[in-house]
Write a structure and sequence with these properties.
The chain is α/β, with parallel strands linked by helices. It folds into two domains: about 200 residues, Isopropylmalate Dehydrogenase (3-Layer(aba) Sandwich), CATH 3.40.718; about 130 residues, Isopropylmalate Dehydrogenase (3-Layer(aba) Sandwich). Helices cover about 40% and strands about 20% of the residues. A ten-stranded mixed β-sheet has the order 2-1-3-12-11-4-5-10-8-9, with helices on both faces. Strands 6-7 form a two-stranded antiparallel ribbon. Helix 1 packs parallel to helix 12, helix 8 runs parallel beside helix 9 and helix 10 packs antiparallel against helix 11. It is globular, with a radius of gyration of 20 Å. It starts with a strand and ends with a helix. Bound molecules: nicotinamide-adenine-dinucleotide, 3-isopropylmalic acid and manganese (II) ion. Manganese (II) ion (MN) binds next to helix 9. Keywords: Amino-acid biosynthesis, Branched-chain amino acid biosynthesis, Cytoplasm, Leucine biosynthesis, Magnesium, Manganese, Metal-binding, NAD, Oxidoreductase. InterPro entries: IsoCit/isopropylmalate_DH_CS, IsoPropMal-DH-like_dom, Isopropylmalate_DH. Its EC number is 1.1.1.85. It catalyses: (2R,3S)-3-isopropylmalate + NAD(+) = 4-methyl-2-oxopentanoate + CO2 + NADH. Catalyzes the oxidation of 3-carboxy-2-hydroxy-4-methylpentanoate (3-isopropylmalate) to 3-carboxy-4-methyl-2-oxopentanoate. The product decarboxylates to 4-methyl-2 oxopentanoate.
């Protein structure tokens, strides 16, 4: 059966890296007999330009009816004063689709080890996953901005915490069997509840070790002892910050993919980074974050493990061959790197 993939290219480097991801998908599909069709929709700033809203109804409907969604990136200085910003469109899309579980893997391809800003002995054996709660917390609480005061409400229910903690235990069960639950329990009520729920869920997973960490010192340990971690689970805002921090391990945001899952309905795959306005249109963005998001889609939405593996191997081979974009210290353009990955498939 033909799979319907909705693509949201968005803004900045979004259209460039989306094209690269789709070129790789087109090259791998015949090798695995994967039959698909693409429906490209306006989203983010591009949708503000075309349809006056970052998440037009037809985009949301297409996303709801897709088998999977690929998103590149949205946002940029041009839209900072928009009535409804691109970022609000992204949050609305996540909420509407119920995409509460955001999976952000952190692994370092062999070829990247010597490029990391950290010492090789620190990088050795790094392989963890940040599980970020994506539809709750301070992102979705009440926001009030007055001239002389402002407030943002951080809300979490027991059920919202429970379902994301469960996901992290399920993932840990299939890998290193350790969950690090990250909070600010020494200050925040939401974090106190988070810790109680984590303990409750852990009772059903006697084969998995649970440890708790405070977010401030965890931010330090993620860099000094990154190989200690297997699955890190945390609330929306902490997960946003910690996952960008984790990109320091491979050395660039340009290689970081993610998957977002709902209880029901299509999953969404996107790089963790933004629209990189500083390099948009220059043809030098690293397409690997998008290409690895395509690989995650093949594996997690379509059970096409071989296809995902082909892509990941080709990326590793390309990096080993020394084809590197500027963020990795090289001179390859986005199209040169994409062509090299395709030829290594
Ligand atoms: P950013 O992630 O866009 O960029 C941070 C830095 O990383 C920049 O120097 C950029 O050049 C570099 N970078 C990011 N992706 C790269 C790639 N693929 N190849 C090479 N270098 C890359 O963060 P920012 O500049 O703080 O935000 C820019 C805009 O993106 C903002 O409007 C923000 O809200 C938005 N944003 C969107 C998403 C998303 O679409 N999911 C995520 C994060 C930020
Ligand atoms: C991300 C981004 C978004 C977030 C922004 C653009 C709203 O930083 O996907 O990590 O904070 O979730
Ligand atoms: Mn982010």
């Amino acid at each position: 059966m033909t799979k319907k993939i909705v693509t949201l290219a968005g803004d900045g480097i979004g259209p460039e890296i989306m094209a690269a991801g789709l070129d790789v998908l087109a090259a791998v599909a015949p090798k695995i007999n994967f039959d698909y069709e693409i429906e490209a929709k306006n989203f983010g700033g591009a949708a503000i330009d075309a349809e006056n809203h970052p998440l037009p109804e037809s985009t949301l409907n297409a996303a709801k009816n897709a088998d999977a969604i690929l998103l590149a990136a949205i946002g940029g200085p041009k839209y900072n004063d928009a009535a409804v910003r691109p970022e609000q469109g992204l949050l609305a899309l996540r909420k509407e689709l119920g995409l509460f579980a955001n999976i952000r893997p952190v692994q370092i391809f062999d070829a990247l080890k010597h490029l990391s800003p950290l010492k090789p002995e620190i990088i050795e054996g790094v392989d963890f996953v940040v599980v970020r709660e994506l539809t709750g917390g301070i992102y979705f609480g009440e926001h009030t901005l007055n001239a002389r005061d402002a407030r943002d409400v951080n809300d979490y229910s027991y059920e919202e915490i429970e379902r994301i903690i469960k996901i992290s235990f399920e993932i840990a069960r299939g890998r290193g069997k350790k969950v690090t639950s990250v909070d600010k329990q020494n200050v925040l009520a939401t974090s106190k509840l988070w810790r109680i729920v984590a303990e409750d869920v852990a009772k059903s997973y006697p084969d998995v070790t649970l440890e708790h960490a405070l977010v401030d010192s965890l931010a330090m340990k993620m860099i000094t002892n990154p190989s200690d971690f297997d699955v890190i689970v945390t609330e929306n805002l902490f997960g946003d910050i910690l996952s960008d921090e984790s990109s320091v391990l491979p050395g660039t945001l340009g290689v970081m993919p993610s998957a977002s899952h709902a209880a029901n309905g299509p999953s969404l795959y996107e790089p963790i980074h933004g629209s990189a306005p500083d390099i948009a249109g220059l043809g030098i963005a690293n397409p690997i974050s998008m290409i690895l998001s395509v690989a995650m889609m093949l594996r997690e939405s379509f059970d096409e493990t071989a296809g995902a593996q082909f892509i990941e191997n080709a990326v590793n081979k390309t990096l080993l061959d020394g084809v590197l974009t500027k963020d990795l210290g090289g001179t390859a353009s986005l199209s040169e790197m994409t062509a090299a990955i395709i030829s290594n498939l």
